[in-house]
Design goal:
Layout (H helix, E strand, L loop, with lengths): L3 H26 L11 H38 L14 H6 L7 H7 L1
Bound molecules: zinc ion.
Length: 113
């Protein structure tokens, strides 16, 4: 059973992580400015869309992570936090300490990932 103190601690770690992830995603969402003075519009547009593609590729793992953090936070509020989604056993505190958004216990993580 996870103590209330530990739960509060995980919650604050997850909230910090959420803030950082949201900021990083926001930074990537801002289209890069290549300067509007170029007369060669075709070149500028293709540079920008290329950069946008790179940003989307960078954004994807951040969004996945943010989703995991949000799920973990809602489990802290609604119950079920710290329980392995695959075998329903409690996830050990050591693993949650390193990775508080973990959905799986150590064994299932090794087995499924
Ligand atoms: Zn498990």
């Amino acid at each position: 059973m996870i103590s209330k103190e530990a739960l509060t601690n995980y919650k604050s770690i997850l909230e910090d992580e959420k803030t950082i992830l949201e900021q990083e995603i926001k930074d990537l969402e801002i289209a890069p400015d290549f300067g509007g003075n170029s007369t060669d519009i075709d070149t500028e547009e293709s540079d920008e869309s290329e950069a946008m593609g790179t940003n989307i590729a960078l954004m994807q793992p951040l969004k996945v992570r943010l989703q995991e953090v949000n799920d973990a936070l809602s489990k802290i509020v609604n119950g079920g936090y710290g329980v392995c989604e695959a075998c329903k056993k409690e996830i050990d505190a050591e693993l949650l300490g390193v990775n508080p958004e973990s959905r799986l216990c150590r064994e299932c993580k090794l087995r499924l990932q």
